[in-house]
């Protein structure tokens, strides 16, 4: 059965119940857990792992959530689904909707998403609407749309998305021979993924499958850092929205929908929220590429954030750290080409590269 080959549906006892005939799958999940030996060495860690969610069918972690939520849309008899997106959710939604024979409509901020992602939603046949606004503006519009029409909303406020996105936590522990890592590091944008993984670990503990949960840390780009700002200013009691700007376009989000859930994930699992600069993201991405693994810019914030946590003494050399790489390197090849051509970063950003990073860079 197709669903038995899915890394999400093989956990279906722990997922929302849909009838098997409604399961819409592209054989997502079952993603590799790579080691990053050179990054580990550079950081003075004994080992460092990366769960590569970019190795999913449409090239991002969104597929694990989309298979669950789209199957629910089918079960409920919807003919249309919709989302606002910085590119990966829309690619995943378009693919799964096409698979199920549903129509999809995506709202994306014009000129602010990577071309590869835009091309995916067109290829999979979504009605693709570029709007002269940012991601947060697209969210407001899609909310209006689904209020007025019988269209199923597939943004990550949809709870079934999180059910699918919790399964990499199960896989990770399975791949580590049922050892629990000390620390999992996740990029933070709309802030659903961190909450989903936290739920996955919490459920495993509740079921007695693991004795404890890992710390979960969330890393944001400095120019799109509402969680970081809020944690600093008020311990996460109140969201401080920002006008977001970063080249890591997947996480260019100023008003995250799952803010409260992410704050709870930090509280229940321990861990920290950090912010990283544009040059730190670019260098971390190149380092992950140089391991033969690669990822998109938003995923590289995890390694950049880990460097900060190590420097602050929050991660020790013995700890088993897993970075969640959320998207494939081919998602945003423009970024990579400009970086290696040398014209991605401004002179100011280049001047702000730390001596340690500069030395690493010369070794790449
Ligand atoms: N990494 C990538 C590659 C993403 O596409 C996203 C979010 C994130 C990290 C952040 O995850 O939102 O759960 O905190 N992308 C969404 C989209 C917003 O529309 O594709 P989050």
UniProtKB/TrEMBL annotation:
GO MF annotations, alphabetized: threonine synthase activity
Alphabetical GO biological process terms: threonine biosynthetic process
UniProt signal peptide: none
Residues carrying N6-(pyridoxal phosphate)lysine: 62
Cofactor: pyridoxal 5'-phosphate
Top-rank taxon: Bacteria
UniProt keyword terms in alphabetical order: Pyridoxal phosphate
Keyword flag Cell cycle: no
Name listed for the protein in its UniProt record: Threonine synthase
Protein species of origin: Granulicella rosea
Included stretch of the parent chain: 73 to 436 of 467
């Amino acid at each position: 059965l197709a669903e038995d080959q899915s890394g999400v549906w093989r956990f279906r006892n722990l997922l929302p119940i849909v009838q098997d005939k409604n399961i819409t799958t592209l054989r997502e999940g079952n993603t590799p857990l790579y080691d990053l030996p050179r990054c580990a060495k550079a950081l003075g860690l004994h080992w460092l792992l990366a769960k590569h969610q970019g190795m999913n069918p449409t090239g991002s972690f969104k597929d694990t959530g989309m298979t669950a939520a789209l199957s629910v849309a089918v079960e409920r008899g919807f003919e249309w689904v919709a989302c606002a997106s910085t590119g990966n959710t829309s690619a995943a939604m378009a693919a799964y909707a096409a698979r199920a024979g549903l129509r999809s409509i995506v709202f994306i901020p014009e000129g602010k998403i990577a071309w590869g992602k835009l091309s995916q939603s067109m290829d999979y046949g979504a009605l693709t609407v570029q709007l002269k606004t940012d991601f947060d503006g697209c969210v407001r519009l899609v909310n209006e749309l689904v209020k007025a029409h019988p269209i199923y909303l597939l943004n990550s406020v949809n709870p079934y998305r999180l059910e699918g996105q919790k399964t990499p936590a199960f896989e990770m522990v399975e791949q580590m021979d049922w050892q629990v890592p000390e620390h999992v590091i996740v990029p933070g944008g709309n802030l659903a993924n961190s909450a989903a993984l936290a739920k996955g670990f919490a459920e495993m503990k509740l079921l007695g499958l693991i004795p404890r949960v890992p710390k979960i840390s969330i890393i944001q780009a400095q120019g799109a850092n509402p969680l970081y700002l809020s944690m600093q200013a008020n311990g996460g009691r109140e969201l401080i929205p920002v006008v977001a700007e970063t080249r890591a376009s997947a996480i260019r989000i100023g008003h995250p929908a799952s803010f409260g859930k992410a704050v709870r994930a930090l509280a229940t699992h321990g861990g920290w929220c950090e912010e990283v600069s544009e040059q730190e993201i670019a260098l971390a991405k190149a380092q992950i590429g140089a391991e033969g693994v690669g990822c998109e810019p938003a995923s590289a914030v995890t390694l950049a954030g880990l460097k900060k946590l190590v420097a602050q003494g929050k991660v020790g050399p013995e700890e088993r750290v897993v970075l969640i790489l959320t998207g494939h390197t081919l998602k945003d090849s423009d970024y990579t080409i400009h970086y290696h051509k040398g014209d991605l970063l401004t002179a100011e950003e280049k001047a702000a590269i730390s001596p340690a990073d500069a030395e690493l860079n010369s070794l790449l």
